[in-house]
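W.,

You were right to be curious about this one. When I first looked at the sequence I had no strong expectations either way, so I just let the prediction run and decided to look at it fresh. Below is the sequence, 125 residues in total, followed by the output.
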Amino acid sequence: QVQLVESGGGSVQAGGSLRLSCAASGYTYPHSHMGWFRQAPGKEREGVAAIYTGGGSTYYVDSVKGRFTISQDNAKNTLYLQMNGLKPEDTAMYYCAASYRTPIQTLDVRGYDYWGQGTQVTVSS
């Protein structure tokens, strides 16, 4: 049973930084893609960043390009999201997700098979 556990969320002021982590366990072969998604109250879940685990290609939604960086540590089975220059509109619950499928629309929730429980990020102005 694949398990994804996020950590690192919190409350920061605008312009601040946070690093989210997602520890993956329970899988017998590597995922094809992993990603970070977020969902604000009353809004649909949206893709923020994704990585092709085999080659390291990364993908970002336009609103976070230049501010967020997705990375992976294969030795630790951990996915990261470094978030700099945070804005109030980044406030949301952030979820880690993993996919075994390829190809996929990397920032589309429908492409992912497993999800973590989420970690809250709150940015105040």
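Here's what jumped out at me. The first strand starts at residue 3 and ends at 7. And, maybe more interesting for your project: The radius of gyration is 13 Å.

Coffee later to discuss?

I.
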